[in-house]
Amino acid sequence: MLRLAENMSRLGTETAFEVLARAAALAAEGRDIVNLGIGQPDFKTPPHVVEAACQALRDGHHGYTPANGILPLREAVAEDILARRGVEVHPDSVLIVPGGKVTMFFAILMFGEAGAEIMYPNPGFPIYESVIRYSGAKPVPIVLREENGFAFSADEVLEQVTPATRLIILNSPANPTGGVVPREEIDKLVAGLERYPQAAIMSDEIYARIIYDGREHVSLLNYESIRDRVILLDGWSKTYAMTGWRLGFSVWPGALARDAERLAVNCHSCVNAATQYAGIAALQGPQDAVDEMVRAFDQRRRVIVDALNALPGFRCQEPGGAFYAFPNITGTGMTARELQRRMLEEAGVATVAGTSFGDRGEGFIRFSYAASTEDIRKAADRIGNML
Ligand code: PLP
Known about the structure:
Bound molecules: pyridoxal-5'-phosphate
Strand content: 5-15%
Structural class: alpha/beta
Number of domains: 2
């Protein structure tokens, strides 16, 4: 009889992958499925980025790289952070990782253990809570409310900080809500956090470039008073339509960069070499593909919000960023999971129940609008008929 470690029983998962598998199984049976479940751009990686990876392989970049990533890529990341966030970071504080997820895994493992508390957004990216529980730390939810545009309340975050708080996870623009936290709220939070020097902050800014209506992206790195304890999570997956390449970066304060690198050496050694060259091309090459993609998401955003608001029992806010709409569906009289199941099985529309993102997601469904407007309209028509 095999005996797994106890903490394995506390590890959760990301239900979006299960929805994807069920949608694929239905499609294999010949059903026409519209997939609004998946959280990835439906665009191709820009060709010059693909070419840079091919060229790197032709040039013989087949071996291990330094565990923290090749220097030209870390320098390119530092230049990008200076250009877009206005903050100077040293390339040695940058860690190149296989996807955004790895930064959250490392940060949570670094601070999480029995007796520690880690705060995380709820509803939020499901892996935060999953890994916090795995680590043995106590997960403390930062509740995101519809009436606040799904932004956190700085006062509520600060009220929950205790001497045991080791790490506070923030995410804006957010998955699954599309919420963008306004600058005033972040200012207020940072001012309050100055009283709690024991708490590190991991800012998940993976959707920083996917933001609408001229809203500004406020990076936590911009705050001098807490910079010595901010971990930045970002990457190429969403911005450059590179989810399958597995490429992300983090910025770690002070000595934590070496601890994070040690985790990398123990885990994956390094990100595959050719992908790292692709990452340089993405950051330093033309950005028009990113701009076009964001313009397309913006158009689809308007289409989906109108279409969802026209459905009986649905109420949908305009998301400020990312590519998710998160309507309140309590008016349908169904739970999120029931509605998710019926939309997939009866209407052939894949979505993800809000409860996949934490218990505070009950009453909501996540629709990804990284899909054509034709598919979005078709999905809304089918759901309308079903309801
Ligand atoms: N952070 C958030 C908020 C996300 O939504 C995702 C992916 O969906 C990630 C991190 C992980 O990104 P990656 O695919 O680069 O690991």
